[in-house]
Automatic annotation (TrEMBL):
A Pfam entry, by short name: WRKY
Protein's organism: Camelina sativa
Name of the protein in its database record: Probable WRKY transcription factor 53
Record key words, sorted: DNA-binding, Nucleus, Transcription, Transcription regulation
Residues in WRKY domain copies: 142-205
Keyword DNA-binding: yes
Subcellular location: Nucleus
UniProt superkingdom: Eukaryota
Region (Disordered): 79-114
Length: 313
DNA sequence: CAAATTTGACCTGT
DNA sequence: ACAGGTCAAATTTG
């Protein structure tokens, strides 16, 4: 939030990457020109150069998606502090394989791509930008936290994570198949603070978000988990040239235990600084989330039933 | 009845 | 072999 350089994260990163690359390149250049220096050094330098430029390229435009692609300079005025994420996702096989087996379907055909497709996608997916943030919920609001855009998510899995007390749930954009939008997110309840969830996004939306979604209620269901909130906001914005790479903010491994729950919430633009992520919000008096989480759980009774009877205000 | 979720099987990278 | 992530059939929800 504090702003010194008003440069966007992308710009900063790109700049430093390019500078590093250039510097390394120059050194190597002089070295090679001089004498047969140590092979090791050269190797290191070369590696650095390569990776640096790779990242730069990725930042600049690592998209080459067949369809979708949204490198259009949206004339939308973005808040200076917030930049809706908009990284086109795609192969970006910079120095990977000069193959052309890159894109699958350019339209929407998908008759029988089976594991091939799966494999391909999983690889591709790994390269998608990733970032995470924490969201806290408040008894009345539902959720609190950076709420900017809201996309429609569809849960496609849940898994227990080793060491974590709560399962992690996986969501993907509802328009995955229809619009080839590969944005996904995973939600994990914080071990420590029951009102905090950590959500990790992967890939940005390439769908015309805010699709036509019937008026939905943002309610809470009576299920062992607060799920669903396929909210959709129609904000004709956000499609752009934001770039980001893989940043992963992570909460340390705290160990607490509880029941389990999940819920989904909106998406938010990624914004952080390279190795600097200090977003510790002042923790206001936390209230109890009462039953929104699990009114009834089917967990072993051996567990402290999550917020079963905590404070009530 | 269509769309979303649940959940165990399956896939892939350490 | 294991853990995390995804698929897909069955089931639930609206």
């Amino acid at each position: 939030m504090e702003g010194k350089d008003m440069l966007s994260w992308e710009q900063k990163t790109l700049l430093s990457e390019l500078i590093l690359g250039l510097d390394a390149a120059k050194k190597l250049q002089s070295r090679l020109g001089e004498a047969p220096a140590t092979a090791e050094t050269d190797e290191i330098l070369v590696k650095q150069i390569v990776s640096t430029y790779e990242r730069s390229l990725l930042l600049l435009n690592w998209s080459s998606s067949p369809t979708t692609v949204q490198l259009l300079p949206t004339p939308v005025t973005l808040s200076p502090a917030k930049n809706p994420g908009g990284v086109p996702e795609s192969p970006a096989s910079i120095n990977g394989s000069p193959r052309s087996e890159e894109f699958v379907d350019g339209g929407g055909s998908s008759e029988s791509h089976h594991r091939q497709d799966y494999i391909f996608n999983s690889k591709k997916r790994k390269m998608l930008p990733k970032w995470s943030e924490k969201v806290r919920i408040s008894p009345e609001r539902g959720l609190e936290g950076p709420q900017d855009d809201v996309y429609s998510w569809r849960k496609y899995g849940q898994k227990d994570i080793l060491g974590a007390k709560f399962p992690r749930s996986y969501y993907r954009c509802t328009h995955r198949s229809t619009q080839n939008c590969w944005a996904t997110k995973q939600v994990q309840r914080s071990d420590g603070d029951a009102t905090v969830f950590e959500v990790t996004y992967r890939g940005t939306h390439t769908c015309s978000q805010a699709a036509i979604t019937p008026p939905q209620k943002e309610n809470t269901r009576l299920k062992p988990a607060i799920t669903t909130t396929t909210t959709t906001t129609q904000k004709p914005k956000d499609l752009l040239q934001s770039l980001k790479s893989n940043l992963t903010v992570r909460t340390d491994g705290l160990d607490v235990d509880d029941g389990k729950d999940v819920f989904s919430f909106p998406d938010t633009p990624p914004f952080y600084t390279y190795g600097d992520f200090s977003h510790v919000e002042s923790s206001p008096p936390i209230f109890d989330v009462g039953d929104w989480f699990n009114p009834t759980v089917d967990i072993d009774t051996t567990f402290p039933t999550f917020l079963n009877e905590s404070i009530y205000y």
